[in-house]
């Protein structure tokens, strides 16, 4: 878009000019990512917001009345997408993974493992969103580094350890209050 009028590039993209569309994407993607990251979304979620915003623009571009106002339109759409994604995440309750037990274990051992897992996820539901997402990632993707966990939940890498410790402390207190022995929680 260097040296080109934004309104003209928008009009050309709206008429199907692939070079104009590529120019719009290249020049404004960093803006969309900043908006999404402003909502503390992880990298994958920020990229999803970007993609959804671009898909929405692709549908709306031919009818856009004020091509020069595209940056404002993009920011507003990215904000709405970010808020929609956050609202959706708040409604998600992670499905507990199957308890890891030996298939040859007795029915009692399997039942106790299932009960412990169910109690763990019930206690996790009381955690704030970031902690719930952290717990889900720690259980389902234990190979992730702190940097990767931080990116997924939208916090600084140095915050993951303290966040994890506080979360585990609260979970331990809830589970002990629910009747589990501290030795059962290891």
From TrEMBL:
Question: Which NCBIfam families has this protein been placed in?
Answer: sigma70-ECF
Q: Which family does it belong to?
A: Belongs to the sigma-70 factor family. ECF subfamily.
Task: Identify the keywords attached in UniProt to this record, alphabetized.
Answer: DNA-binding, Sigma factor, Transcription, Transcription regulation
| GO MF term list | DNA binding; sigma factor activity
Its BP terms in the Gene Ontology are: DNA-templated transcription initiation
- List residues of the RNA polymerase sigma-70 region domain: 24-91
Q: Which InterPro entries match?
A: RNA_pol_sigma-70-like, RNA_pol_sigma-70_dom, RNA_pol_sigma70_r2, RNA_pol_sigma_r2, RNA_pol_sigma_r3/r4-like, WH-like_DNA-bd_sf
State the protein's name.
RNA polymerase sigma-70 region 2 domain-containing protein
Pfam name, any one: Sigma70_r2
């Amino acid at each position: 878009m260097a040296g080109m009028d934004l309104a003209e590039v928008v009009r050309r993209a709206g008429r199907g000019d692939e070079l104009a569309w590529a120019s719009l994407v290249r020049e404004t993607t960093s803006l969309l990512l900043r908006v999404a990251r402003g909502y503390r979304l992880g990298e994958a979620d920020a990229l999803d917001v970007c993609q959804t915003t671009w898909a929405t623009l692709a549908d709306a571009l031919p009818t856009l009345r004020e091509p020069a106002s595209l940056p404002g339109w993009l920011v507003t759409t990215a904000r709405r997408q970010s808020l929609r994604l956050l609202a959706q995440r708040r409604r998600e309750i992670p499905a507990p993974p199957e308890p890891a037990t030996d298939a040859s274990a007795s029915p009692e051992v399997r039942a106790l493992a299932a009960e412990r897992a169910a109690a763990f996820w019930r206690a996790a539901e009381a955690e704030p969103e970031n902690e719930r997402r952290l717990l889900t990632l720690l259980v389902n993707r234990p190979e992730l580094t702190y940097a990767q966990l931080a990116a997924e939940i939208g916090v600084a890498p140095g915050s993951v350890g303290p966040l994890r410790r506080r979360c585990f402390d609260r979970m331990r207190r809830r589970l002990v209050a629910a009747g589990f022995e501290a030795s059962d929680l290891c």
